[in-house]
Amino acid sequence: MVCIVCQHPRDLSLCSRCRMVEYCGQTCQKKHFPVHKTICKAIMSARERLQREEADLRNRPADIFLPADVFTNSVGHFWGLTETRDYMTARSALIQKLDQMNTERSLNAALENILDCLRLNRSDNLGLRSPAVSIMLRLGKLQECYDFVKWWRQAGEDSHYDWGDTDLPFMDIRNANMFEPVGFFFNNKLGDLYHKAAVSLIKILLVFALCDEWHVDRLFRNKPLLVRDGIKRHLPYHQFIPSSTVVSFKMMNELREQVVASFKGVKSQNPHFWPFFRNPTHTLSQRDPEYMSPGDPDEALIAFKSMYLAFERYPKSLAVVEKLS
Questions:
Q1: What is the DSSP letter of 77?
Q2: What is the DSSP-derived secondary structure letter of residue 62?
Q3: Where are the beta strands (DSSP E) in 75-194?
Q4: Is 89 left (phi over 0), alpha (psi -120 to 50) or beta?
Q5: Mean per-residue pLDDT over the chain, rounded
Q6: Which pLDDT tens digit goes with each residue over 293-314?
Q7: Terminal CA-CA length for the chain
Q8: N or C: which end of the chain has fewer CB within 10 A?
Q9: What span, in angstroms and rounded, lies between the C-alpha atoms of 181 and 186?
Q10: 22 touches 2 (CB < 8 A)
């Protein structure tokens, strides 16, 4: 963590209101306050609303429609109980504000809330699994994001999966092979646009990581392995490569082909998504649509506004998008 203004890691303290931004002192905090105050107030308001809704839900007496201790006895299918919806909607509103703040602390808080909402309501009626992938990628959680996307794609393919059966496995994929072919994600137009764009970004970042490590092996081939490994640890994308990976020219070419295939897969699902990258400033300033349909510009706009923040986190990825589009 560093001061959001001067980037120094010294003696940090949190904003006493939202507790989501770090400052090294009052000078930086006062300087940042005109920028910070609106989202700070929004987060405090959303948090207070959620606290009220949770207290109301916990204090409601049980009846034929609402079980006692709903946070224990109704895990997995919250949305099916009408009485929980105000609480879930309030929690979704807080997640949106934490996401909007876009600091490491707020993104971690947003992701924690999303994962808990999915635990409470497996069928995800609020669509929280969509922005979750952008948040994971901005936090550098590539493997977790890939596992997450793969599970939801796998569950979507299974017409017999019972979303109400909490004894069934749920989001249990771990350490899936990020180098595997992308056909599984793009074999039809079903699925989440955010998730498919996330696969594209993951594949792009893996190409960067492999190329960097391959060049180190070539440039320092006469150096001991221990020295080469030490150099690799300082590469910007090194953390995305499993330690057992043996980098080869063939693997890099295969990944490049996966990038192209994933790009085409996103375009096939919604042809309006990638063109938004040509003028991001204008696109990000557009108002969110009230309604959208699969494949239309409004769906692409909503997905772009979230996913662009993930691509922007890795600037070299934007050059790849520009080249492919």
A1: B
A2: P
A3: none
A4: alpha
A5: 93
A6: 999 999 999 999 999 999 999 9
A7: 36
A8: N
A9: 10
A10: yes
**Strand residue runs (E) in 135-247:** none
Longest dimension (CA), the chain: 75
Tokens 């994971």 sit on residue: 136
pLDDT digits (tens, 9 = 90+) for 119-166: 999 999 999 999 999 999 999 999 999 999 999 999 887 889 998 899
Q: Which residue has 């949106």 as its token pair?
A: 96
**Whole-model pTM above 0.90?**
yes
- Are 210 and 247 in contact, with CB atoms under 8 Å apart? yes
**With contact defined as beta carbons under 8 Å apart, do 79 and 105 qualify?**
no
> Which parts of the chain register pLDDT below 50?
none
Residues constituting the chain:
325
Q: What is the pLDDT of residue 190?
A: 76
Which helix (H) or strand (E) segment holds residue 89: the answer is helix 85-101
In a 13 Å sphere around the CA of 6, the CA atoms on its Cβ side amount to: 14
Contact between 129 and 137 under an 8 Å Cβ cutoff? The reply is no
Structure tokens at 181: 């072919």
Query: What three-state secondary structure class fits 104?
Result: helix
Of 107, 135, 106, 109, residue with least CA distance to 40: 106
How many whole angstroms separate alpha carbon 99 and alpha carbon 94? 9
> For a pLDDT cut of 90, what percent of the chain falls above it?
78
Which pLDDT belongs to residue 233?
Answer: 84
Q: CB–CB of 152/146 below 8 Å? A: no
Q: Cα–Cα distance between 156 and 322 in angstroms, integer?
A: 31
